[in-house]
Amino acid sequence: MRRSLNRSGEQGGSRLSFLITLLIIAVAAYIAYQFVPIAYHASILKDSMQQAVDVGVATGKSPDWVRTRLRSEADDHGAPPDALINVQQRDGRIEAHMRWTREIPLPGYIYQYNFDHVAKSNSLLSTQ
């Protein structure tokens, strides 16, 4: 009898802890669901940029060819249509700079994912 009197204020405590834990896990899963695909495609886009400038300089393609290929890659990987793509040829190398921002809706907050990457071709691949 004495035991039940001492624990009478503890009823439901484990249920509340479970619900709070479940809420935290759900919010973390939602954030990952929103953020991970964008970060993954941005990583692939960085690799595609490097490959495009390397192929462009190794085969003697023009910066316009590289820009067209990068625009196609950007569209395939979810970059917005207004993404800045700047391609220049300097000293027998090709440099590509891509910049864009995408909004990621999170609980109570809109995160601005900023992609800003420069890919430079390897000087050993130059045909000049």
Descriptive terms for the model:
3 strands; 51% helix; 128 residues; 3-stranded antiparallel beta sheet; alpha+beta
What features would you describe in this structure?
The protein is of the alpha+beta class and 128 residues long. It has one domain (13-125). It has 3 helices and 3 strands. The chain has a 3-stranded antiparallel beta sheet with strand order 1-2-3, with helices on one face. A hairpin with a 2-residue loop joins strand 2 and strand 3.
Please outline the helices and strands.
Layout: H1 2-6, H2 13-58, H3 63-76, E1 84-90, E2 93-106, E3 109-120
Antiparallel strand pairs: 1-2, 2-3
N- and C-termini, Cα separation: 93 Å
Gross morphology: elongated
Rg on CA atoms, Å: 25 Å
Number of helices: 3
| Proportion of helical residues | 40-55%
Strand count, sense and barrel status of the largest sheet are: 3 strands, antiparallel
Class by SSE composition? alpha+beta
Parts with pLDDT < 50 across at least 5 consecutive residues: none
Strands of the widest sheet, in order across it, are 1-2-3
Overall pLDDT score: 88
**Oligomer, anyone?**
single chain
Task: Quote the beta fraction.
Answer: 25-35%
Number of strands: 3
Pattern of helices and strands:
HHHEEE
**Whole-number tally of structural domains:** 1
Short description:
The chain is of the alpha+beta class and 128 residues long.
